[in-house]
Amino acid sequence: MEKLIAELMRLFVQDGAAAPELLARQLQGEEVETSDLLSSGGLTRAIAIPFEGKDGPEGEHWKHLCEAANALQTEHGFPAPAVSVTGLGYCLWISLAAPIPNAQARQFVRRIRQAWLPERAARGEVRTPPLPPCLDARSGHWAAFIHPGMGASFLEEPWLELAPPPLAQAAFLEGVESLAPDRFADAFAALAQPDPALSAPAPAPAAPPAPAAPSAPDGLLLKDATLEDIVRHLHALNIEPTFRHLLPEPGKG
After folding, report:
1. Could you give the CA distance from residue 30 to residue 27 in angstroms, rounded to a whole number?
2. What's the pLDDT tens digit per position in 62-79?
């Protein structure tokens, strides 16, 4: 658990916002205010961009997330973001090397949604998901970081039934890098200018190709990883993966 807490503090927790003890309570299933973890003094180092599927065609939100994540890297020089399931869909998590005002972070999320989810961008303020991993006490489901290559497998159930192993969660985060202030400033300005190409539909339904990203697992952001690829990746880190679905016993499935 200490390794996961260290990664969360390194990437997303604003200085002075929360002690490791507060994160430890959340990882044990207690409810913790998101604002206490992600914001302090009106500043934040975490930009959470939700792509949730309740209002759109099945699978459309995952496709939009892939398009946005890859474009942020290829067009704006972003490092590969972390990806999580939220209980309602997915979320991109961008770590900032230097904090920015909360209002600017919210405005950046609105600009991302205007570029890739224009039909939903005008539907009011976007809910900021809590920092994963965390338990939703009402549903009993866990929000958690995931290997980007497994995103499509969570379309029907974008959550975990059980608490994710802390070492596996830390492994998904240890290659994530924080975004430099000049890169963020350039992207923030560029996305303020409407670009029809950004909101144009993809020419083919297949997931867009991912750019090389040294900080991402296996060197790619959202590639079509197989289950064997992911197991090998975790085994290389001396982590024994666990899965939320159990195979039926012989004669029962």
Report:
1. 7
2. 999 999 999 999 999 999
